[in-house]
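ESCALATION

Customer reports they have been waiting on this structure for their group meeting. Please prioritize. Original submission:
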Amino acid sequence: MDLILWRHAEAELLREGGTDLQRCLTPKGERQAKRMAAWLNQRMTASTRVLVSPAQRTVSTAEALGREFRIVPSIAPDASVEDLLAAARWPDATEPTLLIGHQPTLGLLASLLLTGHDQAWAVKKGAVWWLRSRLRDGQSEVLLQAMQAPDFL
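Update from on-call: job pushed to the front of the queue and completed.
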């Protein structure tokens, strides 16, 4: 199974009287989302499920893909690693899954899957970590297929 973790692109600071879920992308964030969406669309299969946090900044990031996506409340900014794993159906899903979410949970999830320990790894705004679960010699392993930051596109 492929699990693609995409942190939302750069977002505005929290405005007085607003909520965290209402924060929008900055103009730089919009450019980051478009560049990363183009990179992803060249590589993802048509069957990739796209799951998005209900935060406006993640929805706007997802819209740059031009694909159907599903807003999943359980992967909101306060989600746990277990919430993300359950939403993705890791490692048993038959189709690739793209999760568009937030720090620190994305970094914790990447570290847990790659090392077996949840460590505070940083995932840059707008960056993608592409993980793959596979069986090799009867053992389950996780590979880091790609890691891409929008500044390098």
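Sent to customer with the following note: Helices lie at 27-43, 56-63, 81-88, 105-115.
Escalation resolved.
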